[in-house]
Amino acid sequence: KTGLPLWLLGLGVDRLRADMSRLLALLFHQGVLDEQFLQLQQLQDESCPNFVSKVVNIYFHESEKLLRNLRGLLSDGEFSDYKKMGIHLNQFMGSSSSIGAKRVRNVCVAFRAASEQNNRAGCLRALELLEHEYCYLKNKLHEFFQIEQQRVLAAGVRYRIQN
């Protein structure tokens, strides 16, 4: 025993790959992700091995701004700018669709419907649900990319050991 994690020895690549597959399967089963995420993964290759995580991190950065804007609009007691809220929600829906964030996109659709009806209470409920779904997505994709990073490290160690 070396006391090192198996993946550091290059022995856990298959297990890490299986962990990634199980997590993705769970997220698809729960409706958190859709096939667009798989299409995004197909764009990743050796020339840009972190393509998906880079795109998703841009999505997270932009989504944080959109959530702040939505929160700010709804925190105003005299709120009446449902049109501006609709613009933010359309941006959120589009970017969520582009990475395959199905449940986040679906909440945006319901949120937009509430804003189109000038339903402040409905918007507040939708914002709470949107923040919940967004946090769940962010945590699960963070977990996915951590496992992927471990798998890449393990594969690299295995490769060096074999040479």
TrEMBL record:
One BP term from GO: cytokinin-activated signaling pathway
Main location as per UniProt: cytoplasm
Domain annotation HPt: ranges: 55-134
GO molecular function list: histidine phosphotransfer kinase activity; protein histidine kinase binding
Keywords: Cytokinin signaling pathway, Cytoplasm, Nucleus, Two-component regulatory system
GO terms under cellular component: cytosol; nucleus
The UniProt record lists the keyword Nucleus: yes
Subcellular compartments: Cytoplasm, Cytosol; Nucleus
Function recorded in the entry: Functions as a two-component phosphorelay mediators between cytokinin sensor histidine kinases and response regulators (B-type ARRs). Plays an important role in propagating cytokinin signal transduction.
Domain notes: Histidine-containing phosphotransfer domain (HPt) contains an active histidine that mediates the phosphotransfer.
Name this protein carries in UniProt: Histidine-containing phosphotransfer protein
